[in-house]
Amino acid sequence: MSDALVIGAGPAGLMAAEMLADAGHTVTVAEQKPSAGRKFLMAGKSGLNLTKDEPEDRFLRAFGADELMPALKAFGAVEVMAWAEDLEQQIFTGSSGRVFPKAMKASPLLRAWLTRLKAKNVTMCTRWRWLGWKDDATVFATPDGRVELSPKVTVLAMGGASWAKLGSDGAWATHLDAKDINPFKPANMGFVVDWSEHMKTHFGAPLKNIALNGELRGEAVISAKGLEGGGVYAVSRAVRDGAELTIDLLPDLDMSEVTNRLKRKRGKNSLSNHLRKHLRLDPAKLALLQEFGRPLPDDSSLLAQTIKAVRVQHKGPRRMDEAISTAGGLSFDVLDRKFMLRDRPGVFAAGEMLDWEAPTGGYLITGCLATGRFAGQAAADYALR
To answer: Strand, coil or helix: what is 261?
Structure first.
């Protein structure tokens, strides 16, 4: 019998478990998958971006949700870096301010963390699928059959609704009141484009040194399914909610400079060669311009406007399970300021299952760690009382 139960073994759940253990409580972590931190490991497959080292006001603006501010101010970028180093993981900060472990992968950090939790007598139960509540008992389907637990406190940390194969399937929502859940929406995702035949040769090609929606510098990738990449993810929230998606192919040149270069004598060159010669547009950018700008205007000023704001015609976001994260989830309206469910005293929530979203670049993992820590400390205090 544990004092405390944590459901979900991602970053939020593990952080909540550690806070509870540090407060002297016996802790059980229930995870529906065969091992802990599966989405965390996937996030680190191409380099684990732990946080973003930048001024606090800019960092906090990336999240938007006022309800997260106490958690993030208590455990922001500086604290995340110190936490990783305390787990004997050397870190470095890239030129953009993104912070990574020198090992780049998530697995060394996760192993060190799980070892520390085991030393603190945190019990990990895998292949335990949450079935909701029966009166005051928390019910699970386990390899050994149905299990009912009645801890003093519970922290729910079951993730969002993307990457179902890694455990974040949103199935927990069926065990809560539907009115308490804001509908899930994909976040940090690409957009579906029905490309014409001539684009096939450019699938996989990067679009470098571009600006999206007027000002945000970034990169994108032309894929068979559409457009994706860090620059697209950064504007995906606004575009998902109705904003237009535009791409400035030459952000280092102002409109007048592009116009003047277009007015140079073409001679016998085709328009494509003219654009390549005087504007240095690479094949991927030329293809994108042709895809969405045809018929290209003869007037240099109008063509410059098109190049500086290519209007991407898309079919909407990629499907939920292809998104990096999700918006929607458990509404803050049903939680108190300590992330406890108002109608279930002693039950707290943290991580991506809460209704918040943030861009990629270290914000997501920091948000999960911070809310897990905040909910875990609040649950520990509640149990002591």
So the answer is: helix
The full set of domain ranges for the chain reads 4-186+321-384, 191-311
Q: Which whole-number Å values give the CA distances from 281 to 96, 210, 269, 308, in the listed order?
A: 25, 11, 15, 12
Would you list the DSSP string of 125-154? EES-EEEEEETTEEEEEETTEEEEE--SEE
Question: SS3 string of 85-117?
Answer: HHCCCCEEECCCCEEEECCCCCHHHHHHHHHHH
Question: Are the CB atoms for 140 and 19 separated by under 8 Å?
Answer: no
Q: How far apart are CA 238 and CA 148, in angstroms?
A: 43
> Which tens digits make up the pLDDT trace of 47-73?
899 999 999 999 999 998 999 999 999
**Does 3.50.50.60 match the CATH number of domain 4-186+321-384?**
yes
Tell me what percent of the residues of the chain surpass a pLDDT of 90: 92
Cis-peptide into 295, omega within 30 deg: yes
Predicted local confidence at residue 319, as pLDDT: 92
Torsion of CA 66, 71, 72, 74, to 10 degrees: 130
